[in-house]
Amino acid sequence: MIDQKKILVWTGGVGGGKAVNLVSEYAETSFPELEAYYFKELVSLLGGPAAVAIAWKLSKDPRRNPAYADVIGLAGIELFIDRLAKLGAEFAGIAAPPIKRPVRRRSGPGAPPPGGNAPGHWPYTSQQRLPFQSDITW
Questions:
Q1: Are the beta carbons of 50 and 110 closer than 8 angstroms?
Q2: Which of 36, 56, 91, 109 sits in a 20 to 30 Å window from 131, CA-based?
């Protein structure tokens, strides 16, 4: 029979797993260097089974409330399955990876813009195009 306690356990477990996935995605978009370490995959594909193992260990203790173990286990299962589904959709071409805005890094004044005479800090040059250079800008 479905009662309020079971609904709260399922809501807490599935909602907790979704929340951890969203926080890990937000952390990876906020700190792009985490992508090099596959942060989302580490959190979900390793953290999910680890949460299930912790839930199994908690369920063996008769002094503990079994609802806590159920919530942790369901959150771990949601973490794992949600990331597997997103990876599968990405590899199958169903969902494209998010488009990232290129980061512009400038280290100094750079080259002058093409065409015309150069601005003030390039006093001895003029901008002439070579024969193989087109007028198309990328």
A1: no
A2: 109
**Distance between alpha carbon 10 and the CA centroid of its chain, in Å?**
25
17 phi, psi to nearest 5 deg: -65, -45
Q: What is the pTM of this model?
A: 0.64
Query: Burial code of 91-118, b = ≥16 C-beta within 10 A, e = fewer?
Result: eeeeeeeeeeeeeeeeeeeeebeeeeee
Q: Is the dihedral of CA 37, 43, 44, 47 positive or negative?
A: positive
Helical axes 4-30 vs 66-92, angle rounded to 10°: 50
Q: Give the tokens for residue 2.
A: 């479905």
Q: Judge residue 19's burial from the number of C-beta atoms within 10 Å of its C-beta, 0-12 exposed, 13-18 middle, 19 or more buried.
A: middle
CB 127, CB 115: distance < 8 Å: yes
- Residues 17-63 pLDDT 10s: 999 999 998 998 899 888 888 898 899 999 999 999 999 999 998 88
Could you identify the residue written with the tokens 């953290």? 47
Q: Supply angle C-alpha 14, 73, 76, rounded to 5.
A: 65
The domain segmentation of the chain, as residue ranges, is 4-92
